[in-house]
Amino acid sequence: MVIWDNVMEVHIESIDVQHRTLVALINELQNVIDNGGPQVMVGSVLSKVIDYTNFHFEHEENCLIVGCYTRFKEHQCIHNEISQKLKQLEREYLNGIPGVAPRVLELLQRWAMEHIMKTDQLYSKQLVNAGLQ
Ligand SMILES: [Fe+2]
User: Fold this and answer.
1) Which pLDDT score is estimated for 63?
2) 119 CA from centroid of ligand 1 (Å)
3) CATH number for the domain harbouring residue 105
4) pLDDT at residue 51 greater than cutoff 90
5) What is the pLDDT of residues 78-128, one digit of tens each?
6) Domain-embedded: residue 67
7) What is the pTM for the complete model shown?
8) What is the Å distance from ligand 1's center to 37 Cα?
């Protein structure tokens, strides 16, 4: 389980709300996997969490543009890399390859901890100073 911690906040409300939602969705995926939920349920949570991640990246990138974030390209590259991996995993899942859901979970759990706590913190101050809230 990913436990939300206030140090994960970037102090821009819309982004913090989305990060919390993402953590909740990641934990939902963990629950459905741990409880051996039916395949159709795993699939539905899986696509929900992947769609939401992409939606969130788009929103976050828009905020970075508005705030003229100096390391935008670098940040966008990291998002693209995660998106590509998720797209590949989703394709594998749809092709019936077994064991995909736990790999998505592992990727997202790692991302939530590292990306939100480290990489996203790098833009926080700059965006807040640029007036985003
Ligand atoms: Fe990010």
Assistant:
1) 97
2) 7
3) 1.20.120.50
4) yes
5) 999 999 999 999 999 999 999 999 999 999 999 888 899 999 999 999 999
6) yes
7) 0.93
8) 30
Ion ligand 1: residues, CB < 5 A: 60, 120
* Burial of 116 per CB tally in 10 Å (0-12, 13-18, 19+): buried
Q: What is the pLDDT of residue 40?
A: 86
- The CA distance from 52 to 62, in Å, is 15
The rounded Å distance from CA 30 to ligand 1 centre is 22
CA distances for 38 relative to 29, 31, 89, 90, 120, angstroms: 12, 12, 19, 17, 35
Dist CA 95 CA 27 (whole Å) = 24
Residue range(s) defining the domain that contains residue 65:
8-128
Rounded to the nearest 10 degrees, the angle between the axes of helix 100-111 and helix 13-34 is 150
